[in-house]
């Protein structure tokens, strides 16, 4: 069965460009030109990934990203203007999993889409008895089978990427995991290594855990190397 991808972008030429290359990779593509139209179709169909432009007429991409994350966990890739670091960080804060900077090459887009889908499908398939269970540390618990996280009994609302990073750190508890290795383990790709997506996700994880980078209870930065569960 083909993966269903929703493209939310108001520039017709960009939509047609994206649609052409995604369909060449056998993805099933759906198009919306406003956030309002996207919300309607999201309520009636199940998608595997959303490609979401920030600058939309009416409600913007940030609004739509936040609304999607209230109900759904599938990957969101934001489309951002060149060198707009604030928009990238805002998108990740609201629950986006990655971003693509305009203008972008078709191979870059396809690589990022496939990497996000691999990660999402891998960590959402039914766990076997052998690798299911609870990962825990100092009041922090991850229920691997249910993909749920709690801290001292209180449920935490993590994005898919935040969950995957935390799971990997807990699976390697006491060991330092480099940012490059986190990219490879989660996205199975070297394409992202030069951007700061991991550091932004880790910062948001710390905020949800009530953790501080300078005196962490959970996620420690090993400068110049990566991260570890202390």
UniProtKB/TrEMBL annotation:
Parts forming coiled coils: none
- List modified residues, type 4-aspartylphosphate: 53
Q: Which organism is it from?
A: Lacrimispora amygdalina
Q: What is this protein called?
A: Stage 0 sporulation protein A homolog
Q: Which UniProt keywords apply?
A: DNA-binding, Phosphoprotein, Transcription, Transcription regulation, Two-component regulatory system
- In what residue span(s) does the OmpR/PhoB-type domain sit? 132-230
InterPro entries per UniProt: CheY-like_superfamily, OmpR/PhoB-type_DNA-bd, Sig_transdc_resp-reg_C-effctor, Sig_transdc_resp-reg_receiver, WalR-like, WH-like_DNA-bd_sf
According to the UniProt record, which residues make up the DNA-binding region?
132-230
Biological role stated in the UniProt entry: May play the central regulatory role in sporulation. It may be an element of the effector pathway responsible for the activation of sporulation genes in response to nutritional stress. Spo0A may act in concert with spo0H (a sigma factor) to control the expression of some genes that are critical to the sporulation process.
Question: What GO MF terms are annotated?
Answer: DNA binding
Response regulatory domain spans which residues? 4-117
